Amino acid sequence: MIRALATIFAFSIAFAADPEWPSFRGPSSNPSVANSNLPEKWSKSENVEWKTDIPGLGWSSPIVSGNSVFLTTVTTDGKAKQPQTGVDYSNDYVAELQKQGLKGKELLERLQARDSELPNEVSLHYWLYSLDLDSGKINWKREFYAGHPPGGRHRKNSFCSETPITDGKRVYVYITGLGLFANDFDGKKLWNTPLESSPTILDFGTASSPAQLGDLVIIVNDNEKQEFIAAFDKSTGKQVWRTDRSIHVPGADRQTGWSTPYIWTTEKRTEIVTIGPGIAISYDSDGKELWRIGGMSAMPIPSPFAYDGLLYLNGGTGKIIAAIRPGASGDLTTPDGAKLNEFVAWLQPKAGTYLPTELAYEGGIYVLTHTGILTRFDAKNGVQTYKARIGTGGDFTASPWGYNGEIFCLTEEGTTYVIAAGDKFELRHSNDLDEMALATPALVGDRLLLRTENRLYSIRKKS
């Protein structure tokens, strides 16, 4: 009897306060948790606790605080271009334009006209939703902006790909070029700070989510006019500081980025780590530069994060993945053939990926390409332990996540491949929702919250 009571008590303590999911990729910016009750198998009917239709288009991730799930979406007046999977333009369409003699900038402009949606083409309604975690019922929805968007979007992107953040008291929504919006948990508007609009490369749109540092909301806006990082007061929305970023990629006339900043707190200090076109830069809490490292791509999308004492930077397609030690200063860039800087623990020169951010889990760094190649590196020394193709094909945008000794990789077509964590590649099974999915899910207690094009799913083992 005593043993049974002790077991019940331990169980109740373990699940009395489920972890929250306050931002993109979770509280540690590395979507991995320890909860043996999380589901490993699901389908459109198996282990689905609830599913809620979400109208419109948005690739932001769900966030959670207490019993509230928050999500953004955009609905369109009239007809909008439908989202597309993959990253390549239609080969037939490219060949057709090339036959017409188009090339270079002229070819890109024509492709843009087909595969981008421009701001004067659509009128939008931006929404913030609050849902009940237990039932999926919509608590409330608030329209926080209506009108033409501040810029265009690639058909693969959405007009609200930025994930909101919450501090347990308020929800902060950031739409690049539009502004910051704060609501309380009852949906009441607290403040709105409009921000200037700047062009993005080929009107491909935006996606960099905000971060929070104490009483500050931190944003990074890398665009084709003037890149900057800025901090805003959570209580009032007033700008506290702003630092212009001078980022110019050698040989590439572009400054647009989509990477989300990361707040790195160590025994030495707190830093704001950013990845921009061509370079990664870390700032102190007042926006002053601490260090930088080159080797990033001209179109950075993956976001930085820390794991087991090291910071990980993904430079983008064919670029570096680097592990950085705390306390760095100055330029950490290593010239070809030179010895690594003392603060660079290890560096893989061509391991970077285009879309998904890598995952750190059980001593490994799992790097997933948008074409479905999964590579595992040792987190401490960067040694590659395997490189394998997942399944028979598919396109990948969402970050992989990990729990229960397994790695989960979600395709844009809605199939999640489940791979055993460890030094050897072992594909265990796959779970199919048969719906387009680009958003990285949230892991909350024993629930997996997974967003598809039209729905939010709560996936949970049945009692």
Question: How would you characterize this protein structure?
Answer:
There is one protein chain. Strands 16-17-18-19-23 form a five-stranded mixed beta sheet, with no helix packed on it. A four-stranded antiparallel beta sheet has the order 1-35-34-33, with no helix packed on it. Residues 1-17 have low confidence and may be disordered. It has three helices and 35 strands. It has a single domain (18-459), classed as Methylamine Dehydrogenase, Chain H (7 Propeller), CATH 2.130.10.10. It is globular. It is mostly beta strands.
**What's the alpha carbon Rg, rounded to whole Å?**
22 Å
Shape descriptor: globular
Count the E strands: 35
- Average pLDDT confidence is 91
Biggest sheet layout:
5 strands, mixed
SSE-based structural type: mainly beta
Which architecture per CATH? 7 Propeller
Q: Outline of this structure?
A:
The protein is mainly beta. It is built from three helices and 35 strands.
List keywords for this structure.
globular; 463 residues; 5-stranded mixed beta sheet; Methylamine Dehydrogenase, Chain H; mainly beta; single chain
List the helices and strands and how they pair.
Elements: H1 2-16, E1 48-53, E2 63-65, E3 68-77, H2 91-99, H3 104-115, E4 116-117, E5 123-132, E6 138-147, E7 153-154, E8 165-166, E9 170-175, E10 179-184, E11 189-194, E12 211-213, E13 216-221, E14 227-233, E15 239-245, E16 262-265, E17 270-276, E18 279-283, E19 289-294, E20 305-307, E21 310-314, E22 321-324, E23 330-331, E24 344-348, E25 359-361, E26 364-368, E27 373-378, E28 384-389, E29 401-403, E30 406-410, E31 415-420, E32 427-432, E33 442-444, E34 447-451, E35 455-459
Parallel strand pairs: 19-23
Antiparallel strand pairs: 1-35, 2-3, 3-5, 4-7, 5-6, 8-9, 9-10, 10-11, 12-13, 13-14, 14-15, 16-17, 17-18, 18-19, 20-21, 21-22, 22-24, 25-26, 26-27, 27-28, 29-30, 30-31, 31-32, 33-34, 34-35
